[in-house]
């Protein structure tokens, strides 16, 4: 059941943080600002997959939603999207102390239970997510810097999974 806050936010045109779709105006924005059309999306996904296949030492997911994050960030230029993927995976590989292959999820979740960071439940009127980091709530004696950086990075990567966030 919707509460009065949710009703008020919806009545004022605010979109929820968690949304797995693009509104009509977001589709138009994606076309105008990111060069995203059905044709460009299909072509760029095909080209990006070819570039990924050439990378023998790079284990990258190749599903459409994952690759679209990189393509939207680089206005559907497959070469530039590939460079962004290489950069991300290099950072992850070169910093195993911050980005370990096995993460203690209970510890990572505990960081956000201290209200160190998160996202508001509704988007800004322009469709963007409103995220926050409250450094005053971070206790470095309880949460080492490596874990804090890892958790904040995971939060940010999670935020950009939503198509609306990628466009807005």
UniProtKB/TrEMBL annotation:
Domain (CRAL/TRIO N-terminal): residue spans on this chain: 63-88
Annotated Gene Ontology cellular component terms: membrane
Molecular function in Gene Ontology: phosphatidylinositol bisphosphate binding
Entry-linked InterPro entries: CRAL-TRIO_dom_sf, CRAL/TRIO_N_dom, CRAL/TRIO_N_dom_sf
The name this protein goes by in its record: Alpha-tocopherol transfer protein-like protein
Organism: Parasteatoda tepidariorum
Highest classification ranks of the organism: Eukaryota, Metazoa, Ecdysozoa, Arthropoda, Chelicerata
């Amino acid at each position: 059941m919707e509460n009065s806050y949710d009703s008020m936010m919806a009545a004022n045109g605010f979109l929820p943080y968690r949304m797995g779709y693009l509104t009509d105006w977001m589709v138009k924005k994606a076309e105008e600002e990111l060069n995203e059309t059905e044709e460009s999306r299909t072509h760029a996904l095909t080209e990006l997959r070819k570039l990924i296949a050439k990378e023998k030492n790079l284990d990258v997911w190749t599903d459409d939603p994952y690759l679209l994050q990189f393509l939207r960030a680089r206005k559907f230029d497959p070469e530039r999207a590939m460079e962004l993927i290489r950069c991300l995976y290099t950072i992850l590989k070169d910093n195993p102390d911050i980005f370990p292959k096995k993460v203690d999820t209970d510890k990572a979740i505990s960081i956000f239970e201290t209200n160190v960071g998160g996202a508001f439940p509704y988007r800004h009127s322009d469709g963007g997510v409103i995220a926050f980091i409250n450094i005053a709530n971070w206790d470095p004696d309880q949460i080492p810097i490596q874990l804090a950086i890892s958790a904040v990075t995971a939060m940010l990567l999670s935020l950009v999974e939503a198509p609306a966030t990628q466009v807005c």
